[in-house]
Specification:
Belongs to the DprA/Smf family. By secondary structure, the chain is an alpha/beta fold. It has 3 domains: 53 residues, no CATH class; 212 residues, Rossmann fold, CATH 3.40.50; 60 residues, Winged helix-like DNA-binding domain superfamily/Winged helix DNA-binding domain (Arc Repressor Mutant, subunit A, Orthogonal Bundle). It has a 9-stranded mixed β-sheet with strand order 1-2-6-5-4-3-7-8-9, with helices on both faces. Strands 10-11 form a two-stranded antiparallel sheet. Helix 9 crosses helix 10.
Length: 362
């Protein structure tokens, strides 16, 4: 259908479907020279069957009653990055919410993962969503249980909008337990769907909508995913679209993280452990660098090399004289005496019966 619309425009494509006959040139182009040509006639029969039950005027009226809007390619709110999908680009999108979709997706990250998320996955997703939103990045996800819901809730705590891409009509709350979450997303972000109002979710629609999640964002983060998780389907779309792909590592014993580990092992995804890592990956070069992680800074880290060598040569229990310490530290005795005085003043060492020892701080 995408190729048909691209070739003849929306009205021309609809006219051919109504007539029940596709342009022979188009059919020839779709079928010639291909090892597995599409069954164009079967598609045409399916489109005509669906056309019998279509009522676009009623759909638009219902959308208006819900406070929703319909956008198409070329509209000001249409995100142009969806054009990267080529013939798989959505023909139109239903939106429900206060945020502008195109503006919201200029700096955006998709956060996806398992519906049956572990407490670890839920915690990481919420932290990731909150950190991204606080840094001004929109979080895009699918509004499902588990990782999706946690990422949306975390994002709602920040200043940036959040985008939920559904596999059903914008008037359908699925899953039903996320009713309050969807209401919050509409108030601060926007809900998106290819389906008109009233359409129920099906398994294929979840996989179909994943391409939209991947295309809307600059990059996708898989927080937690089993080997057969639908989140890996989103990851596949991200790779095909040349978007950044990242994965969060989990316990090696967790089946829920096996998909993430496989992505990292195959070098298909970058390993990330914080929202700072994600922003560095998808952000502007030189502007969004994550700080290098460091261990805790200890007081002795500020000591110069000679003083640190003297300190390391002072015994912990029995005292040692300056000459013994000098040999162990590899410095002369005057240097040891001066350094010991400074270390004693700083509380690192103390005099003992037989020389100097480390001071035990309780």
């Amino acid at each position: 259908m995408g190729r048909l619309v691209a070739a003849y425009g929306p009205e021309g494509a609809l006219g051919q479907v109504r007539q029940g006959r596709l342009d022979p040139c188009f059919v020839e182009e779709m079928t010639s020279g291909k090892s597995r040509p599409p069954d164009v006639e079967r598609h045409l029969r399916a489109w005509r069957a669906r056309l019998q039950g279509a009522d676009p005027v009623a759909d638009l009226d219902e959308g208006a009653r819900l406070g929703a809007r319909l956008i198409v390619p070329g509209d000001l709110e249409w995100p142009t990055q969806l054009d990267d999908l080529g013939p798989e680009r959505p023909l139109a999108l239903w939106l429900r919410g206060d945020a502008d979709l195109r503006f919201s997706c200029l700096r955006s990250v998709a956060v996806v993962g398992s519906r049956a998320a572990t407490p670890y996955g839920t915690h990481v997703s919420a932290e990731m969503g909150a950190g991204l939103a606080e840094a001004g990045w929109t979080v895009i996800s699918g509004g499902a249980y588990g990782v999706d819901a946690a990422a949306h809730r975390g994002s709602l705590a920040g200043s940036a909008p959040t985008v939920a891409v559904l596999a059903c009509g914008i008037d359908i709350v699925y899953p039903a337990a996320n009713h309050a979450l969807f209401a919050a997303v509409r108030g601060k972000g926007v809900i998106v769907s290819e389906c008109p109002p009233g359409v129920r979710p099906t398994r294929p629609r979840f996989l179909i909508r994943n391409r939209v999640i991947a295309a809307l964002s600059r990059g996708t983060v898989v927080v937690e995913a089993a080997l057969r998780s639908g989140a890996l389907n989103t990851a596949t779309h991200a790779v095909a679209l040349r978007r950044h792909l990242a994965a969060v590592p989990g316990p090696v014993t967790s089946e829920n993280s096996a998909g993430c580990h496989r992505l990292i092992r195959r070098a298909e995804a970058v390993c990330v452990t914080s929202c700072r890592d994600v922003i560095e990956l998808v952000g502007a070069i030189g502007d969004d660098l994550a700080p290098e992680p460091r261990g805790p800074v200890l007081p002795r880290d500020s000591l110069d090399d000679e003083t640190r060598a003297v300190l390391e040569s002072v015994p912990a229990r029995s005292g040692a004289g300056p000459a013994t310490i000098a040999v162990a530290a590899g410095v002369d005795i005057p240097t040891v005496l001066s350094r010991l005085g400074a270390l004693a003043a700083a509380g690192y060492v103390e005099r003992a019966g037989r020389g100097w020892r480390l001071r035990h701080i309780h």
